[in-house]
Amino acid sequence: MHPEGxxxxxxxxxFNTPNGKTAHGLVRFTRRYRILSVVDSxxxxxxxxxILDGKPNGxxxxxxxxxxxxxxxxxAYPPTHFVVGIAPDGGRLSSAARADVVRAVEIGLNVDCGxxxxxxxxxxIRALAAEKGMTIRDIRKPPPRASLHFFSGxxxxxxxxxxxxxxxxxxxxxxxxxxxLVQAFEALGCRAELVGTGQTxxxxxxxxxxxxxxxxxxxxxxxxxxxVVRAWTETRPDVIVIExxxxxxxxxxxxxxxxxxAGRPDVVVLQHAPARRDYxxxxxxxxxxxxxxxxxxxxxxxxxxxxxxxNHEDLPAETIPTVCAAICRDVGVPAYxxxxxxxxxxxxxxxxxxxxxxxxKEVWTAPSYPFCPPI
Length: 375
Known about the structure:
By secondary structure, the chain is an alpha/beta fold. It is built from 14 helices and 13 strands. β2, α2 (about 50-55) and β3 (about 60) form a beta-alpha-beta unit. The relative contact order is 0.11.
């Protein structure tokens, strides 16, 4: 997939915070755009990759849209897209951000936005875009109901090994881990596809994507099933990795049950931030213990937790191996920091099950399960 265009990612006031997760995903990986810069005045002059992961990636952070356009004009790729990379609670756009959207259209940029505020419904912005010949895409806009799918049972025809990447909280790194796993499987010679379930996965270029929170509830399961079935029938992958949303017990963003029920994964990988005590954005709502969340997922799905993957926020680097060992000891499931170390070790652990599902059943039903030692 070749880039559709050259993008400036708008993340004013939110980069390197949970509300900047769309920008984070695009900075780390996207097939849809060539990322030129990120806009956040708090980090002007810094390298986006260094801020996020301590590894420079050559994507500069600019103080403003004007500065970003000026910087891009000196490079090889003129900007074509303004991508809204903030993901605030409730998906609403501030007046300041809306003014930057207007400025982007005025200077000749197409706008892609994944928020619940639909820019294409704003008469003034719509008229300005038409005048300038620019396109406004609201990624979270609900599709026509006539095009939606109801659950049919066709998921049973899918022979690919399915992995659901769920989380113990929202904005915890599920999508990033899902992409890392896809890339690790590909490096091992497996055909792998990501089924995206949110607007950022679409922006990153996932071929099979639905936006769960833009759907009427009756059709969520059907759309998950339809995306997985399409991925299987069109590309025949060995592995399908399904991106999770929210968490089962998050009070504001409950999610994951439909993925378990309709996507019918063979195993679950559970993303967890050990340093978090309360649900993201909701102090006073403590995250249920990891063991409790694992038990809930296994009861609902009847499937094993193959691994816990770590979000290492607020953890000193030298403590991460100890934290992983403690998770393995406490819940009997191996833990990996795939963002820091890559997904190869976890992908290799799962390869025997992909080749032989009977082995998965034998291990899952063995008296010694849960297990920690590598298979």
